[in-house]
Amino acid sequence: MTLRTQVLIWVGFTVVVIAAIWLFRPILLPFVVGIALAYILNPLVNMVQRTRIGRGWATAVVLLGVLAAIVGIFVIITPLIAAQIAGLVVRLPGYITDLNDLVRRIAPQLTEWLGPERAAQLEASLAQFLGTGVEFIGNLTAQVAQSGLTVINTIAFIILTPVVAFYLLLDWEGMVKGIDDLLPREHRREIRTVLDQIDRSMAGVVRGQGSVILVLTVYYATALTLTGLNFGLVIGLITGLFSFIPFFGFLTGIVLSMTIALVQFAPNWWFVLLIFMVYMIGQFLEGNVLYPKLVGQSININPVWLMFALFAFAFLFGFVGLLLAVPLAAITATLTRYALRRYKESALYHGERPAKGAPERELALAASEHKAAPARRTAPKK
């Protein structure tokens, strides 16, 4: 099979997958979440299975335990979160108005520090920024409300997701073996290497980054609540849950927190400084402790590419695309690195000279061509 044929096959396969996701996007949510849940829990099921418990019972025990924990957390926390979200949406315009009044009260001091022109520019920029922020939050809330799950979809999601996860966990080893049996014999070892790299990248995305999101959500929600910030719980949840989008969760959280803190605690600036320090400590933990320990270099995705993938997939496929964006970006990055490595080993990159580390078949071919060269290449000149 020629290289051109292989490229056409893979491009066609990619187009078919994207078309299928777009066509079936209204019903994919339970299956996507079920697959992710099965992938996350598979190591835990394997661990339980080593205690000489059958695969079916190990799957049932792990899945039921996780679902019980999730249901318990939702039953306890969901009413409080819903109340805080409703209160934040209602009171946010008032906070913006109070912040404008605060700026006007300290305007004489700003004028003295910055001068009349710079103070006026600062006040106008702040008013424009706050107005844009309120409009953005209002539009986002309306879009979430319009694209929210209906009652039927919610029931289907609650029922189908555990069923999909259970059957995938039950037959996980069989599916892996079936995929391995379908690999071309000539390229099996190389494909296995690429699949292992994809698995490590996916583990970093789903398990590693999922752990980071969980830790950050608990940290911000607890820290902001303990500081006494109004709606600290829901703002902490927003900051942590959206931390998988580079800088989005942090910027959204700190803008909301500082806006409310300035109105709530001024002129007691120590509490405002405390809220600011909560976010600085969170950023330090995320960048220097959590990501190096829990994720490491397994993802290795440029933040710009990650943000583009998130917005592009969300635009094309809605909420399902938002869930699929990061894993598919990790897979694409792995395949791109592999393609670049093979390109740098090919004759297209090096010319007729074989690359260092190229496949042995290419080296043998180059050696045979060298031996078959005309004798005049080595004959002495008369």
Based on the model shown, name its key terms.
single chain, 382 residues, mainly alpha, 0% strand, globular, disordered C terminus, membrane, cell membrane, AI-2E-like, AI-2E family transporter, transmembrane helix
How do you describe this structure in short?
It is found in: Cell membrane. With 382 residues, the chain is mainly alpha-helical.
Provide an overview of this structure.
The protein is mainly alpha-helical. The chain has 2 domains: 30-171, no CATH class; 183-346. It is 82% helix and 0% strand. It has 14 helices and no strands. It has helices spanning 3-23, 29-49, 55-105, 107-114, 116-146, 151-170, 172-181, 188-226, 232-241, 248-265, 269-295, 303-345, 347-350, 360-371. α3 (55-105) crosses α6 (151-170) and α9 packs antiparallel against α10 (248-265). The protein is globular, with a radius of gyration of 28 Å. It starts with a helix and ends in an 11-residue tail after the last helix. Residues 144-148 and 372-382 have low confidence and may be disordered.
Number of domains: 2
Residue stretches low in confidence (pLDDT < 50, at least 5 long) are 144-148, 372-382
- Give the helix/strand class: mainly alpha
* Sheet having the most strands: none
Number of β-strand runs: 0
Membrane topology: Multi-pass membrane protein
Transmembrane segments: 7-24, 30-48, 60-82, 149-170, 212-238, 244-262, 269-285, 305-335
Main location: membrane
GO biological process, one term: transmembrane transport
